[in-house]
Amino acid sequence: MGKPTNITAEYGLNPGDPLPQLAGHVSHGRFERVLRAGHFAITTEIAPPDSADPDEILKRAHLFDGYVDAINATDGSGAHCHMSSLAVCAILTRIGYSPVIQVSCRDRNRIAIQGDVLGAAALGVTNLLCLTGDDVSAGDHPEAKPVFDLDSISLLQTVRTLRDEQRFLSGRALDTSPSLFMGATINPFVPPVENRVDQLAKKIEAGADFIQSQYCFDLDLLKSFMAQAVDLGLTERRFILIGVGVLASARTAQWLRDNVPGVHIPDTIIHRLDAAKDPKQEGRNICVELMQQIKEINGISGIHVMAYRQEKYVADVVKRSGVLGTRQPWAPEQMETSIGTVS
Amino acid sequence: MYRARLWSVRHSRGLEIIYNAVNPALLSILRGINKIFGRHLDRPVTALEAMTKGFLFDCQMCGDCILSKTGMSCPMNCPKTIRNGPCGGVRENGMCEVKPDMRCVWVEAWNGAARMKDGGAIKDIQFAVDYRDSGSSAWLRLARNG
């Protein structure tokens, strides 16, 4: 729960402090406030560094200042080892950023996950994305033991149990429950396309408050998916953010399509990149156009920009797309922030 | 067996009819056995279940069988043992992202469920399995608890 309002009014808020939780909200985070206020939201993601240096994270987050409402910190994405999502989020909350902790089921069982969920909330994290996770065979430690004790939907139910029933799965009571805005993922672009909306319905039933999708490069598929979701009433009170990507070249696009599970890129996009004089620029143009068109589709609450190794262009594509209108997302006032490197 | 597994999903409607017809009888026989022999016949019963379901579905004996709710496609054959699938990594041709030579068990499951009368049960949320039941007989568990 947030601090009493009178103290806030008297002393003002340190950006690292939690905001007071509003009525009808499940978290005290800024991201939930933006969505529930009906704004079109932008999220992006940080690839956690292969480093023990906290300043590396702040440098990366700084690139998004003023253009995003929340920053996902990936959890060993592609089954590659990086700094943990929990640590990245904890460092971001110190400055006042609104991170989304990603929790994958690949590396931890239900005991570890529940502990991390409580820990994340204690460290000021207010948003959590539940994923099943890539298999270990996709990464650089294929010899590791895959856990998969839970799947994404069981994970949603687990976090909901902690939050709403104030207890562990075992039934043991919590003194304070974690106030978390819960997210899940969807990929409407791969088989079984006709059942993907059922999967969305299941995730919402399991407790998802917001949804972030895989890369969307195919508007026709998205439109039919969203029409089904709206028909089923899934977009009321739940917030769907559609993923977009910044492609650097036709070769990158081809590589993504062939090597990253679940990425669907139509040939037209690849041809367009191939024919462009400046493919990098064209990749950003494609992203901008997609964002503008996605915003027009009924039932969509925001966009999730994934720009792996193109992070410096996120601000540019968001700005050019104009999807934020005149709204400027929160940013820390100054970025001389260093919380000290470890020595 | 992989080919038998695919056959079972293609014939999910028929298997559903057989399951619905046979299941009550099977459970009462197992209850009878349980009454007379207690736990003494658990091993042969478990072995029989593992053999038949192993052949038809590549059953992994998770001990918490939900085949009738997953289009007769066993979710424990998913490399991530997802109980509420599919994941977002399914290949464009419907094959598994982890094992490119295997059909995604959840693409199969939704196909199988579409053929079944009570296929809508695939939309029920399944919580993660109780790992302690792994290797035990789901039939006996149903007979004893049902």
Task: Give an overview in words.
The complex is a heterodimer of chains A (343) and B (146). Chain A has one domain (20-321): TIM Barrel (Alpha-Beta Barrel). Chain A has helices at residues 5-11, 30-36, 54-62, 85-95, 110-122, 152-164, 196-205, 219-231, 250-259, 267-275, 279-295, 314-321, and strands spanning 41-46, 70-73, 99-104, 127-131, 181-186, 210-215, 239-245, 302-306. Chain A has 343 residues and is of the alpha/beta class. In chain A, strands 1-2-3-4-5-6-7-8 form an eight-stranded parallel barrel, surrounded by seven helices. Chain B has 146 residues and is mainly α. Chain B has one domain. Helix content of chain B is 48%, strand content 0%. The two termini of chain B are 30 Å apart. The mean pLDDT of chain B is 96. Chains A and B meet through helix 6 and helix 7 of A and helix 4 of B.
Number of helices of chain A: 12
* End-to-end CA span of chain A: 36 Å
Could you tell me the mean pLDDT of chain A? Answer: 92
Number of strands of chain A: 8
Instruction: Quickly count the domains of chain B.
Output: 1
Beta-strand proportion of chain A: 5-15%
Total domains of chain A:
1
Along the chain, the helix and strand elements of chain B come as HHHHH
Shape of chain A: globular
Note poorly predicted spans of chain B. Answer: none
Write the layout of secondary structure elements.
The complex is a heterodimer of chains A (343) and B (146).
Chain A lengths: L4 H7 L18 H7 L4 E6 L7 H9 L7 E4 L11 H11 L3 E6 L5 H13 L4 E5 L20 H13 L16 E6 L9 H10 L4 E6 L3 H13 L7 E7 L4 H10 L7 H9 L3 H17 L6 E5 L7 H8 L22
Parallel strand pairs in A: 1-2, 1-8, 2-3, 3-4, 4-5, 5-6, 6-7, 7-8
Helix pairs in contact in A: 5-6, 7-8, 9-10, 10-11, 11-12
Chain B lengths: L1 H9 L1 H26 L4 H16 L47 H11 L22 H8 L1
Helix pairs in contact in B: 2-5
Quick rundown:
The complex is a heterodimer of chains A (about 350) and B (about 150). By secondary structure, chain A is an alpha/beta fold. Helices cover about 35% and strands about 15% of the residues of chain A.
